[in-house]
Design a protein that fits this description.
Blueprint: H1 3-17, H2 22-28, H3 33-41, H4 48-58, H5 62-67, E1 85-88, E2 93-97, E3 108-114, E4 129-136, E5 139-143, E6 146-150, E7 155-159, E8 164-168, E9 173-179
C-alpha cells in the first residue's frame, strides 16, 4: 500500500471512529463531500493543509494522520540529523517531520524537499500561519495572488488562510516549513 492509500485508510478510520457522515466531516473541514470521497478512496493525494485542519477540528495528532504513529513525548523531543519521519507526499514533494514524537503540538515543523516541475501551482488554504525558510535551491511562492521568488536564506511568514503554493525553480529545493 502506498502512502496516499495509507493516509486514505486513516481518514476513513477516523471518520468511522467518530461516527460521522462524509457530509458532516466535509462540512467541518471546509471541503466538498466529493473531495473528501477522493481523499478517502486514495484517488487523490491529501494536502497537509487539509490534514492539519482535520487534526485541529477533531483533536487528533497530525502525526497520527500522516504517519500512523501517535507521538509520545510532552516535554521535549529531539530529532537527530536525517532521522525525522519521512513521507513522499507527491512526486514533487517529500516531507520530513522534525517533531513527530511531540504530543499536542501547536506547530508542525517540516524539512520539505521540492523537485522542479512544469505543473501549475496547487494552492492550499488552512487556518493558522505558515513560516518557510529556504535552505537550498530557488522556489516560486504565491501567497494571496502575490508571487515571489526566494533563494537560500530568504524566509516568509504568512496567514495561511490566504491561498498559497510553491514550486522549485530549476533544481531541487529544500525548505523548512513550520505550520501552526
Amino acid at each position: 500500500m502506498n502512502h496516499i492509500q495509507e493516509v486514505a485508510a486513516r481518514l476513513r478510520g477516523l471518520r468511522d471512529a467518530l461516527e460521522l457522515t462524509a457530509e458532516e466531516m466535509a462540512h467541518q473541514c471546509d471541503v466538498s463531500p466529493e473531495v473528501l470521497a477522493a481523499y478517502e478512496s486514495g484517488e487523490s493525494d491529501v494536502p497537509v493543509s487539509f490534514l492539519h485542519r482535520l487534526a485541529s477540528a477533531y483533536g487528533v495528532e497530525l502525526t497520527a494522520l500522516l504517519f500512523g504513529e501517535e507521538p509520545t513525548m510532552n516535554s521535549y523531543f529531539v530529532t537527530r540529523a536525517g532521522k525525522g519521519v519521512k513521507v513522499e507526499r507527491t512526486a514533487a514533494y517529500s516531507y520530513q517531520d522534525l517533531a513527530a514524537g511531540f504530543q499536542r503540538r501547536i506547530m508542525a515543523p517540516f524539512l520539505v524537499t521540492i523537485e522542479p516541475t512544469d505543473s501549475p501551482l496547487t494552492l492550499n488554504v488552512h487556518s493558522g500561519q505558515e513560516f518557510n525558510y529556504v535552505l537550498e535551491g530557488e522556489i516560486e511562492l504565491s501567497v494571496g495572488g502575490h508571487v515571489t521568488r526566494m533563494r537560500p536564506g530568504d524566509s516568509i511568514m504568512f496567514d495561511s488562510l490566504r491561498p498559497h503554493g510553491l514550486r522549485a525553480i530549476g533544481s531541487t529545493a529544500r525548505i523548512i516549513a513550520i505550520i501552526s
